[in-house]
Design goal:
The chain is mainly α. It has five helices and no strands. The protein has one domain (6-95).
Length: 101
């Protein structure tokens, strides 16, 4: 997963080292697991959920598979941001995101 800010990259690396089940695509399958991962590393659950949102959208786009809209809507409710706001943030993320995952 590409992350522009070093601090976030370091935090995600620490999560993957502490909880390998979240590595290789950051496999958070529900909002509760994001909160558990965040708590283990003393991170903001919002940051973890946003990264999962970006990963889901980016990987769906690259693979040509449909997005998991139910999961994405659940993330939006949990982070408390509108879809339009998250789309703007995703557009920023995607500018430098890898072409392969």
């Amino acid at each position: 997963m590409y992350v522009r800010e070093d601090l976030i990259a370091d935090m995600l690396k620490a999560i993957c080292e502490e909880a390998p089940e979240y590595s290789m695509g950051f496999f958070i399958t529900d909002v509760n697991s994001a909160y558990e991962a965040a708590e283990k590393q003393e991170l903001s659950p919002i940051s973890v959920l946003k990264m999962r949102y970006f990963y889901e959208k980016h990987s769906a786009k690259l693979s040509g598979e449909p997005e998991d809209r139910v999961f994405l809507k659940e993330i939006l409710r949990s982070v408390g941001e509108s879809e339009a706001d998250m789309e703007k943030q995703f557009a920023e993320y995607e500018k430098d995101a890898p072409e392969k995952i």
